[in-house]
Amino acid sequence: MTVAVDTTLSVRDLQVRFATPRGPLDAVRGVSFDLRPGEVLGLVGESGSGKSVTLRALLRLHRPPTQVSGEVRWNGQNLLALPEARLRDVRGGQIGMIFQEPMTALNPVLTVGEQIGENLREHARLTGRAARERAAELLELVGIPAPAARLRDYPHQFSGGMRQRAMIAIALASQPRVLLADEPTTALDVTIQDQILRLLLRLRDQMGMSLILVTHDLGVVAQTCDRVAVMYAGKLVETAPVLDLFRSPKHAYTLGLLRSLPEGGDRRVPLQPIPGAPPNLLALGDACPFVPRCTYATLKCQVGEPPLEEVAPGRFSACVHHAELPRPEVRA
Ligand SMILES: Nc1ncnc2c1ncn2[C@@H]1O[C@H](COP(=O)(O)OP(=O)(O)OP(=O)(O)O)[C@@H](O)[C@H]1O
Question: Boundaries of each ABC transporter domain copy (predicted)?
């Protein structure tokens, strides 16, 4: 008998509240989206917008007193309500995660081979020689030369780019259906960044997994993603297929992000940030939180925070001026 597995990850009204000395801080304020099988979803936004906190919440990596609510539906269950023992099968198993700085995710006292082996044992029930062979295959798959020998090396014996690949190999050992990637290439130089992104896309094609890619870099989004979710002050303010977003953004914040892209998408030129600072999450008012920085803001924008609504087929925006925004002069 085959059991149908629903591999759409459905996030509904996700909220994350931190307890801080200055009071409760709502870092994620009602985020909802679906990640379809085989899809690459880019999660973009400035520093502090809530991208990493969102990603960690999907796998329930926050600990009390941090409060997480909403639903993360996966394979017929709500991950936010699952007993810890059952969640462990999902976390690092069906859903893998890779981080910006592999040294914080890798165990410094275990060899890379041992770390891949742990995942193979726990999630793929492979041990002994079969596990060693599979581990070498995984290192080869992520483009690490002389994989059998490198299994005996510790993380500090790898260069930055190779460490990133090793972390991906560990995450892939469980054959995840979904990979959550938090700025997986930010610390790397552009050539290695391109190689790793290409690798992730190849793995998506080969293994059919879907991917959430958190990034600051719209160049990376253009190169990699099928769909984009733009985050501002703990909310999604726009979601769209990638080309549509680049051609005709439907939120003034997205337009600002695109205008801050260097001419011709040259990533060696530093980005021009949007004037003004992101809002203080401890002191949000009732208006659209982008108002103080928005050149299109009118009185309408002061009347409550606009909800994310479908404004064209497949396009969602939380901007009351979505229909009046100009096209940015960027090449997608
Ligand atoms: N443990 C914590 N306690 C209190 N506040 C936190 C904690 N972790 C994150 N925050 C706050 O939550 C907000 C969202 O942070 P988050 O790391 O998700 O942003 P981000 O969009 O991923 O930014 P970056 O791109 O810089 O990683 C920020 O205001 C941050 O200061």
Answer: 11-258
